[in-house]
Amino acid sequence: MARYLVVGSGATGVHFAQTMLERGETVELIDVGYSPPAVEHPELDFSALKDAGTEGGRYFLGAASEAVVYPAPDAKPYGFPPSKAHVFRRPGEFRLEEKGFAPLLSFAKGGLAEAWTGGSYELRDEELADFPFAPGALRPHYATVASRIGIAATADDLESFSPLTPGSLAPLPADSHSAWLLGRYQSRRARLHARGVALGRSRVAVLSRDLGTRGRCTELGRCLWGCPRGALYAPSQTLAALMSHPGFSYRPGLLVHRVLVGRGGEAIGVAALPIDGGGEIEVRGDRVILAAGALATSQIYLETLAAGGRAGVELDGLMDNRQAMVPFLSPSRVGAPINLASYQFHMLALGLRGDTWRTDVHGQITTLKSAAVHPIVAGLPFDLRTSLAVFRRLRAGLGVANIWLSDSRRAGNRVRLGCDEVGRSRLVLDYADHGHDLEAGRVAVERTRAALAELGCLAPKAMTRLLPRGSSVHYAGTLPMGAAETEHSTRADGSVRGMAGLYVVDGAGFPWLPAKNLTYTLMANAVRIATTIS
Amino acid sequence: MNRSEAAPLVLTGATGFLGRELVRRLAAEVAVPGAERSVTLLVRSPDSLPPDVRIPSTWRVVACDLSNQASTLPPGILPPACVVLHLAAVTGRAPAALMHRVNVDGTRMLAEAARRADARHFVLVSSIAAGYRRQRWYPYAASKQGAEAALLASGVPATIVRPTMVFGPGSRVQEGLERLAVGRFPIVLGGGNVLVQPVDVRDLADLLLALVDHRPMGAEPLEIGSGDRYSMRTLLARIRAARGLPARSPWSVPLGLPRLGLAAAEGVFGPKLPVTAGQLSAFLNDSVATSHPVVDLLLPPGDPLRSVVSAPSGGATPGDDAALGGAAELEREFKSLAQHLGTERPSTEAVAAYCRGHPRAIAVPFDALDLRLLRLARRSPVGCVLADSYARLTRPYGLLRRKLVLALAVLEADPERHAEYDTGRVSALAVAWTEVVLLGVRWLAWTMIAVLVLAPGHLVDHWNSPRETARDG
Predict the structure, then answer these.
(1) How far apart are CA A460 and CA A334, in angstroms?
(2) Are B408 and A386 inside 8 Å of each other by CB?
(3) How far is B193 from chain A (nearest CA, A)?
(4) Residue-wise over B115-127: b if at least 16 C-beta within 10 A, else e?
(5) pTM
(6) Which of A107, A397, B70, B350 gives 20 to 30 Å between its CA and that of B310?
(7) What are the pLDDT digits (tens) for A235-293?
(8) B425 vs A335: CB contact, 8 Å cut-off?
(9) Nearest residue, CB atoms, B443 vs list A72, A386, A396
(10) How far is A272 from chain B (nearest CA, A)?
């Protein structure tokens, strides 16, 4: 029996496990663990891969062309490719009811960060004000994570929004459009600063030099489909490395649905269902670590309470960063050549200073390089033939700013259990926006459009989109860390109040959600908890 | 797996509702290099194949009447090491003896022939009714149970599939329920509290084609239903909602006496009335599927009620389904759309990818205008321009736009043509902007012509279609 039983192989689970193993502990990791398909032609770049045929386009479109993004009122200008289908696959036994909250969930090896874009930003000290530990407590753990995963970053104006982790790797070469935008920013810096706008190189978990078995980014332009060199970090890489550790064991194919509780009310293991069918099995451990992601962790906690006779508990405080997409065109780039062989995701990041640090807005700017173009073309306001012709001429000047707003815990935005019509338990998510949420989103979009205009870009208002709650994939707040001895909360060391031996190391424990990419902080916090309790 | 290397497929019941859908899918694969497989259709009479089912010339069509009293099938009728997909069955108001002869004895005969041919897999499409608790006066359910037992007794590697209610264009079950749901005074037979979980015929067909190449599941039947389970009352309410009708709680009609009366009448006269006592069993038993990981994996996550919207909204009929795509027609259509988008000779891989993606592209409600735009787009390059322009205005998420987007997606992955879509058009800034302005002018001109040509017919359709008007309102 392992000392630590970790549920979930996402960003928090694997970094918690690695830290514990480094400290001489034993870890058993339980996971549904859907696996990715084999990587095709890892040596080829985006264009050469298409030239190679890839089985009649199956790599890009899927066996039944299921990766085609058809026009729809809420269609996004991109879709996830077949190689990422495993990331969002759900076991049949997991049931969900969404009310105002449309989440992405993952049961894959590595979890949701298998499909992330690598944005890695430290929180500032003030952004940790609601957390029950010293503001500087995360700092060394950011450095630990950075040394494990490799973060390409550079010192620039973004430091006022996010401290730079020491030992960062050199930034990746900027594509021509991003370099052009950065040049425009430098020449208009004072005016943009007066508007509370800062621009810099995005900080990404991508290698600009080789690190261990992972190769540096060689600009294959295949990031969305899954970096074949492992340059873009994914938690499954850490999981693969942990497999050879003698103190580690991995049990995929199990959907954990509750914690086993001993006679003294302490956690003694978990009950799980094999996803290939069969009855419930029990797995024991000295301490149970929930790292399944805020939503699945909440469900396990609620099912545990229900099994103990406490049905009907509701966990208030569900949070998610409101996300908006602001597509733009740089008119003077129209007709310019583009280079498809490039790091595909964002190379620039944006900070918009708010009235207080709680209302700061964070964004990342992605210029269009290699991509599936059909969703973008279908989103233009002409017939498809004209849209395609116009797109080809505008292509070198196209980009999108993705911005996030902070969120705070509120009663009524919650997670609870419900039943379907045949009495099976399911997770219910209730979320309602307040009027000021929508106004804040609108203001943030307008400020972003104004900043882009200052850079010489057009960002048509009609093309901007405030995405539904749940889109940012930053879920948090249902079992918040805090000093107060309240029910359904966790302590600074992640321990769950009222159940000895049970710990939460994922976003469920966050008491506030800043406007930042969350994954880096999640990993650092999991390392912090591991070093605290080991 | 390359389909041409797959085991030969033997299909029975090709003329039925589900069989026609399977034939359409298999026929579409013929156009896909490497995707076609050897297919044998066992049909009661080759003349019984309906004209809208196109049979590829490479397929075998063998006459085989399962109601024939002969105890064995002729040798050689099944290819060695084949897979069998057995759909053929007598349903509806047939006499119990005929149901037993075809459904039970016919299955036994076919299973025996499969065993002699060393068949790799025999997939029997049974019915959820085979598991009903209350089967009184329902010989069909009993015959399906008998068929399952006969198959398992044969020793051939087997999978038993029990679909719930199968919906889709042309579904009689769906039509019957729609009649109950959409009237001025909707009714539900019995209490309306039995649980249902329909599945769309297109999803079921996809699942079956995946299952034949899957490992045999043996005695454990796979029950097939899509998405959520809900009560019969909820189903009728959803049908009303999908048809744009105001919510109205259905009146409950007790079933006890009518069933008794029907059973008595059948005892004297045979099943001569429009409905049998047994057919009403669906209102007495839950028709829901027990979750199974193989089904979860293979069943497409389609909305089982999607055809409820499309059928009545303006003229699309099962016959139109054929107009949506035979294999050769699809290839021609794709080449027309590719030419419209600027590519003259797409590769054979692209043609295959278009055919593969087509079932999803047409999984959308469509009406007479959608079909007219599609036909216009197929007719000529000018027609394509007009249809594309008018579709952007009136059907931005409709059938033609979806086909165009599929064509574009396929072309941008085409090993021979992708560069035309992946790279921008490089030119001097002034030239590029001049071209953009000219494109805008051209778009405006074509859109005006399209409105002048197509709007009058569209308006006439709209005025003549009270249902559509009600829905829009």
Answers:
(1) 16
(2) no
(3) 11
(4) ebbebbbbbbbbb
(5) 0.70
(6) B350
(7) 999 999 999 999 999 999 999 999 999 999 999 999 999 998 888 999 999 999 999 99
(8) yes
(9) A386
(10) 16
